[in-house]
């Protein structure tokens, strides 16, 4: 992801254990990333939710999506925040899809 701010670099969670090249972010880092993406005018199309298990993070089959025709970058950030904030702090991580 080209929009990672310096303060978050190195804090990502790799998903190599799932044979995926995606990266995920713990809740507080994910919320910081949403703010950064919003400041850059990036549209957050959606994301996936993962839950920490004994052997690493696994998809919990929850996700969110916002069609670009239904909002702007600010609305996409608000939608992402709302979805992320549904989860308690702790063992959840979030993968972003950014336009």
Automatic annotation (TrEMBL):
<protein>
    <recommendedName>
        <fullName>Immunity protein 40 domain-containing protein</fullName>
    </recommendedName>
</protein>
<feature type="domain" description="Immunity protein 40">
    <location>
        <begin position="15"/>
        <end position="97"/>
    </location>
</feature>
<dbReference type="InterPro" id="IPR029080">
    <property type="entry name" value="Imm40"/>
</dbReference>
<dbReference type="Pfam" id="PF15569">
    <property type="entry name" value="Imm40"/>
</dbReference>
């Amino acid at each position: 992801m080209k929009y990672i701010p310096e303060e978050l670099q190195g804090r990502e969670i790799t998903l190599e254990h799932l044979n995926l090249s995606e990266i995920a972010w713990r809740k507080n880092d994910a919320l910081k990333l949403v703010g950064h993406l919003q400041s850059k005018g990036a549209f957050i199309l959606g994301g996936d939710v993962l839950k920490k298990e004994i052997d690493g993070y696994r998809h919990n089959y929850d996700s969110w999506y916002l069609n670009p025709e239904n909002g702007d970058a600010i609305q996409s950030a608000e939608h992402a925040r709302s979805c992320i904030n549904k989860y308690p702090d702790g063992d959840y991580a979030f993968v972003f899809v950014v336009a």
